[in-house]
Amino acid sequence: MRWGTGSSQIRPRPAMPFFSQDFQEVVKSGCTACKIQDLDATIPEEDAGQLNQLVVSALQRNPSIRYVVSADGAFIEGLQSSLAAAGLSKVRVLANWGTVATEADLKTGPFVALTGQNIEYEGALLIDVALRHSEGMPITTPNDGGLPFQILTKTTLVAPAVSYNYPSDSLQQLEKLWKVG
Length: 181
Description:
The chain has a six-stranded mixed β-sheet, sandwiched between helices. The chain is of the alpha/beta class. The chain has helices at about 15-30, 45, 50-60, 80-85, 100-110, 120-135, 170-180; strands at about 10, 35-40, 65-70, 90-95, 110-115, 150. Helix content is about 40%, strand content about 15%. It has a domain at about 10-120 and about 145-155: Response regulator (Rossmann fold, 3-Layer(aba) Sandwich). The chain starts with 7 loop residues before the first strand and ends with a helix. α4 (about 80-85) links the parallel β3 (about 65-70) and β4.
């Protein structure tokens, strides 16, 4: 995966360390000339809605930054209008866990990719783990298929939604496994 040879990226430091570590590994393996600049933001700053202002300020201080990558789309809702107001039209934005608002921005603005997930299936997987535990069955590792994510782009996004129901028969598959459907 190539993030833009010689360009810089900025991303909020996520609460999810696996995202940060994986992101850094992918960038380093695909683009040795790329640099990553972390944006240190506190939870109170995020809660106060100051993250977009911090991102814009960091971009203005370092105009070589071409991409903003966020661990969670909810952190950067409204970033599109903040970038436009600051005249930062060349910056591209990617986020994990798109929200309805960031998915709408994907269709019209600097967002180039988001991930979508099937939260109904995620809830069913939690029930599955509880059922397996209560039956004394092994609980498999998250690398056996786990929760599917979709890469959403301007062309693959059908319509902004809270949850992407893919696979569309995921709940029926679990009901069959549980022998209740």
